[in-house]
Amino acid sequence: MSRWTASQVTEVAPDAASLAAGRKLAVPGPWRETGCNDVLVWGQCQGSGKTPYQVSVDLTGPAYRCSCPSRKFPCKHALALLMLWSEGRMDDSGQVAAFAEEWAGQRAARAGAPAPAADKPADPAARAKRLEQRLARMDAGIEDFRLWLTDLVRSGLAAARAQPYSFWDDAAARLVDAQVPALAERVREAGSLVHARPDWAHHLLAEVGRWWTITCAWQGRDRLDADELADVRVAVGWAQSSEEVRDGDARPGPWTVLGAHRSDDGRLQQQRTWLAHDDGEVVVVLDFAGYGQALAVPQLSGARLDVVVSRYPGSDPRRAMFRDPPAGAEPVTALPGRTSLAEVHAAAAAALARAPWRDRHPAPLAGVRIVGGGGEGGEGSEWHASDASGSVPLAAGAPVWMLLALSGGEPVDVFGELESGVLRPLSVWLEDRVVGL
What we know:
By secondary structure, this protein is α+β, with helices and mostly antiparallel strands. The protein is about 40% helix and about 25% strand.
């Protein structure tokens, strides 16, 4: 069955409140064991209780089942599941969860018809057809977005800033319908940032350039190698199942935790954990959780983990996931791969040459000094990290006073993320300990 559009999901909502609640849950964080085939969509959603809700949708009815106590039909969990499916954020391998298969069998028995062939392997022809339909929808959406971008640039950035939020939201909604949710999220976020950032013109110009580059890369995907294509898939939001990654490119430890950062935009929490191998390879583990849910237990900066990580395809630094929960941590105090600001900038430039839309780069800095940039000072971008090769502003909200207290004004090893031309410090590496920031 063809994948539903966002408007089709909206149509089956019992009321506006359920739709709004479903949208809040339509993020990967609270979900696990999601999947779909030609007739079924399923997943488990972690609610406030200990046991996750089991959610199944029969697309042929459509019919819905959820183990939550809601009397609305479909409930917010089923709506959220359909939203994730419509955006292409789940695996379509056809390996049906047991609870969904049982429910489908009961429905078929009641109807006097044979149960859906849930336990059969995915039909290659049907899967190829779904892939063809998805690519056609994405191609059309990307082409539509390029026209929107052309009009935006032709009208000028000042005119774009004067547009209402619906201007950005409508464009993002069309991208979601085209199953390119990551690009949609960037556009939606830009609608807020053009009014929030003092450097909005510079930021918007850079973002528009990144969006255009992503569309060019997508349209030329037939000429890309496997890693380049993987980068483009991430940029547009074509998800890869965690099961496929877990069984793929694995590398044993030990891995050293360089630092971690958590963010929360009100709908989705994200945790980034940077790891380094002994040979210098750096990967980042991403964890997500929905509103009110708990993120994975953070790893301590400076811990040396005896763990196997599975790496997603793409260019360095690659995304990774723990194959099993980390165990056997030992503390270290030597920052792996410590280097200069000039080398960090050179590595970031090389990464941008491969994937111009990449946002963050690891920065293991050796012997940097925290210096004031004039003005009244304080926690924020008035301060810089500096070494003999140059300096970089600290991100707004960086813990400057803690950095100064730990370093005593002397050069110190710092790990951080280089993002949009500023450094977000995540850990300080001292002679006798590592301090997470």
